[in-house]
Design goal:
The protein has 19 helices and 11 strands. The chain is an alpha/beta fold. It has 2 domains: 245 residues, Amidase signature (AS) domain (Amidase signature (AS) enzymes, Alpha-Beta Complex); 153 residues, Amidase signature (AS) domain (Amidase signature (AS) enzymes). Strands 1-3-2-4-6-5-10-11-9-7-8 form an 11-stranded mixed β-sheet, with helices on both faces. Helix 2 runs antiparallel to helix 3, helix 7 packs antiparallel against helix 19 and helix 12 crosses helix 14. The protein is globular, with a radius of gyration of 21 Å. The mean pLDDT is 96. Keywords: ATP-binding, Hydrolase, Ligase, Nucleotide-binding, Protein biosynthesis. It comes from Candidatus Methanobinarius endosymbioticus.
Length: 460
Amino acid sequence: MNTFEKLQAIKNQDLKATDNLESFLKKIENNNSSINAFLTINKDSARNKAKEIDDKIAKGANVGSLAGLVFGIKANINVEDEIISAASKTLEDYQSSYDATVIKRIKEQDGIIIGMCNMDEFAAGSSTESSYFGATDNPAAPGHIPGGSSGGSAAAIAAEMCDITLGSDTGGSIRNPASHCGVFGFKPTYGAVSRQGLLDLSMSLDQIGPLADDVSGMAVALDTIVGYDKTECTSLNQEFPVFTEVINQNSEKLQDYMKDMKVLCINQFSDVTDDHINNIIDDSVAKIKNMGAEVVDSSFNYIDLCLPTYYLINYVEFFSATRKYDGRKYGYKIEDVCGEEVLRRIEMGSYISQQEFSGKYYKKALQARSLIRNEINKLLSDADLILGPTVPKLPHKIGEKLEPMEMYAYDVLTVIANLAGIPAGSMKAGEYNGIPVGLQLQAKPNGDVKIIKAMAALNH
């Protein structure tokens, strides 16, 4: 059953919230030791919440819109009384004293939080191999990386360990693992979801978003976490669509969603992508053409600029964000205990931040970012969506040694949305040799609902 159907079953008492939770706990008990998707599980609080929901329903009391759905949370989002380690030895004993805004909203709507998901250390990576607590396996392609940095969040969905997870996306950290694990992942418009309570990797790029195994799971999560937060400086104070209303339609209406949509396929995206992935994406293009969409080949001439621009900004902002981990208040001093990739980014950020270099590198990167954003907005000014591959290559095998630039190359198609502040989502387009391949959809700022509509239509 899909997420909508499960919610209805719980509210009708055809399925108890406690039974939904216990089925996931059993899967975690049986499989997490080999997959390593979850770092911590809180059975007691989850069971208490599930029982509370069942009791409310039995008494005829009102329950929230997430009643009985089970959530996994990336280990860099604060959940009160949980260990928020960001998968680093630096914070291995840090117990959070508060809930992030997104967590408050999930709890208010009777979502059940089951535990904290593995990730690349401080979200610095694309494979979840840099976690201090060990790599996460890919349930959809065992022995291969699940992607990163939200690899635990994607693997938990692919292994059916919970209904929905939250990840954070700085340059593709939700969409990359969604692609590799064959699940749905969504990065909302910058500012649509509060970042209050998120341990930043790069404050001007980060955005929290959901992962799920169906579009209805994405929609119910977005309806909960999207919205203005007066405590968070980047939060957008505006009206947002009701995502569940958009996709809770009959099949004929869903088929009509792609009619009259103009969709761009960027030539440079396929140029940097492996042929076997392009072939699968071409099948999705043919499908949306058959659904009535107008598909237009287009060009984006700044693709070679995107990775260096992204990483220069990332290095500087990450260096700044990590200065609070000095060993006085939060566990260990980060430079003393962190892994190789985190240290590389700190050292690069420190170097670039020096006064004599900041104009040469960082300020130029900000100028390049404006150029990229303007070009993307120009492309989307008379189009609804940009469609293409999520990741240009298949996931490597766990433990296979990659040079930093080889690892960074995973991000070439996903960093664009973060640099431009636009919404982007990934969904499974097919498989190559049994390994999932993701289709990425991008829209103009606040065009999040168009992506959800297209996903619903394509997944129908």
